[in-house]
Prior knowledge:
This is HdeD family acid-resistance protein. Keywords: Membrane, Transmembrane, Transmembrane helix. The chain is mainly α. It has one domain (about 5-185). Helix content is about 80%, strand content about 0%. The chain has 7 helices and 2 strands; from the N terminus they run αααββαααα. The protein has a two-stranded antiparallel sheet. β1 and β2 (about 75) form a beta hairpin. α2 (about 20-40) packs antiparallel against α7 (about 160-185) and α4 (about 80-95) packs antiparallel against α5. The chain is elongated and about 55 Å long.
Amino acid sequence: MSLNAANIEQRVLEHMHKEWGWIALRGLCALIFGLLALVMPAATLAVLVLLWGAYALVDGVLALVAGVRIREHGKPLWPLIIVGLVGIAAGIVTFFWPGVTALTLIFIIGSWAIAIGVFQIMAAIRLRKQIQGEWLHALSGLLSIVFGLLVVLRPGAGAIALTWLIGWFAICFGVLLLVLAFRLRKQPV
């Protein structure tokens, strides 16, 4: 690795260390969303749609902010920006068409989770030499992909079962992001 590449990687690590709070906030939002989904399993699909739309929108905004603030080669971190844009788009689509069928919602949630997973893994691979615990980032991406595939392959699942699945996914995803964020915070730069 050239000296210039090492300097760039060091700057990325410094930005991630400095901006660890955005990752922690994403994890906290996911954890809260997951707990709410488990506590209110009998909620109607309309409430689930709005709750999920709000979560996707907030998560997208937070990912977008983190992607813009974390720099690589002096430029924004594009995989995280794409995750943010996908989340914002999924949230907006959910709010503009609240009467969407359960099947369409399932495919939106599944596709969103798969997309996030792919980009989380890309980011983990890209940063594997700069941070400790990058496997947590990759594992959160793998969890997202598995969750998305399960949702897409089992569209006939009932609303309550989907609520529980989404709740546990969000809790696991949130915990993994929180652990990653606090590791980044402690990471020496």
